[in-house]
Amino acid sequence: MAGNGGLRGHGELPLAADINVTSLVDVAFVLLIIFMITAPIMQGGVDVELPRAAARPLTAKEGLVVSVDRQGRIYVDETGLSYEDFRATFGALVTRRRPTGVYLRADRRVDYGRVVQVLAVMRAAGVNDVGLVAEAEEIER
Q: pLDDT higher for 40 or 43?
C-alpha cells in the first residue's frame, strides 16, 4: 500500500495542515475594538477642576505631572503623596526620571498657599520651568 496517494489509511481523508485564518482575524478585530473603547476610559487621571484662562492653555504632554486636588492632596502622575513625602522624594524623582517637562495641575478651589508650597518644593528640586495647566476659557457673546 505504498502508493495510496497521500491517504493515511484505508478510507481516511488526506491530512490538511491549513490554519483557519478567518477566526484568527475575527478575534484580532474584537480585541482591537475592545482596546479602542477602553483606552480613553483608562486615561482618567486625578479629578481636578482646572481654572480657566484667556491665554492659550498649556496641556500636560509627556513629562512629570503634579496634581493638587480640591482637598489639597498631592499626586505625582497618579500616585498620591502626603506633603512631607512629596517634599522628601520629589528631588530624587526628578533626578532619576529626567522628565522633558514638569506640569502643575491644581484645582481652582484649592488653597493658594498649598499651590505655593508645591511650587516651592519644585523649585528647591531644581525645576525652574513649571508648566501651569489650565482649561480654555469660554468666550461669552
A: 40
Dihedral sign for Cα atoms in the order 77, 90, 131, 104: positive
End-to-end CA distance of the chain: 92
3-state percent breakdown (helix, strand, coil) of the chain, nearest 5: 35, 20, 45
Give the closest residue to 81 by CA, choosing from 111, 47, 128, 118: 118
pLDDT in tens, 67-112: 888 888 889 888 888 888 888 988 888 888 888 788 888 888 888 8
> For residue 36, what pLDDT is reported?
81
How far is it, in rounded angstroms, from Cα 113 to Cα 102?
Answer: 20
**What does DSSP assign to residue 71?**
T
Q: Where are the domains of the chain?
A: 52-136
CATH code at 52-136:
3.30.420.270
